[in-house]
Amino acid sequence: xxEETTLPRPAEPDWLAxxxxxLIAYREAENRFRASAAARAFTGEPDPGAVIEWRExxxxxxxxxxxxxxxxxxxGPALPLVVHVHGGGFVGTAVQxxxxxxxxxxxxxxVVVSVEHRxxxxxxxxxxxxxxxxxxxxxxxRDAGPWGIDPAQAAVFGESCGGLxxxxxxxxxxxxxxxxxxxxxxxPATELTATMLEHGSAAEHAHTPTLSVPVLRLFxxxxxxxxTDARTLSPLHAGDLGGLAPALVVVPTHDPLADHGRRxxxxxxxxxxxxxxxxxxxxxxxxLSMPGVAPQAEAARxxxxxFLRTSFAA
Length: 314
Known about the structure:
Largest sheet: 8 strands, mixed
Distance between the termini: 37 Å
CATH architecture: 3-Layer(aba) Sandwich
Shape: globular
CATH superfamily: Alpha/Beta hydrolase fold, catalytic domain
Radius of gyration: 18 Å
CATH topology: Rossmann fold
Helix content: 25-40%
């Protein structure tokens, strides 16, 4: 999990022809870059008001790495918990979200735990990552004391595929009677069914610099093995979306997945779950993880902070 100083970024592969071996090699190289000092020009500098460390959660059958953000020198009462899930699906690391997570930890204040979930590949469908998100949330709430967490003040926050994982965690939390104060879903993927790419935004923004339809086709193929009911992994197709934690759905307009967020916010609202949809004109997918090149990231970070602060104060 070390952060290296200077690394070249790997060349973009042929997504549709990529073999399993090529996928693993690509994501290892890409994640080394995302965790390097060189990437900070894109991903932003952490807030100096937060301390960051890697830890491990002992979950059933596995130890799961998590990146933990705490306010510096906090000696007060137990803090709210924000469980964050980074984007990427088959590539990505919690380090790429240091900018936003350290800011939330310092300014809410809160303990932010970013889940280094199992990445999608031929051996690990997205169901494994979904389990990682839910198991991490449940473990932290149940074992809140050693973490300095107030178990009655918990929220989930996910980006892209992490948004899908967080949305499903919010549904599981309701079913398990685990109270959540909020869910924040940023450029979320909300369905993996055959109609995943039949939304208007996928056609309009099929080849953006930060996400393209060929990448989504590869993700869909790896995420849902043959014989799997994709609806069970698609929040947009959940049967009951009532009684969930209030949601903030953040949508960049120049994103193939923009309509995923829009339609999910509509479904939440129709089910009676409070849902606020905000759109950021001209922003592309994953813009919140790239404040160095996406000016809209600052406003999105501010609205997430304000939404969570209000949710925890309620």
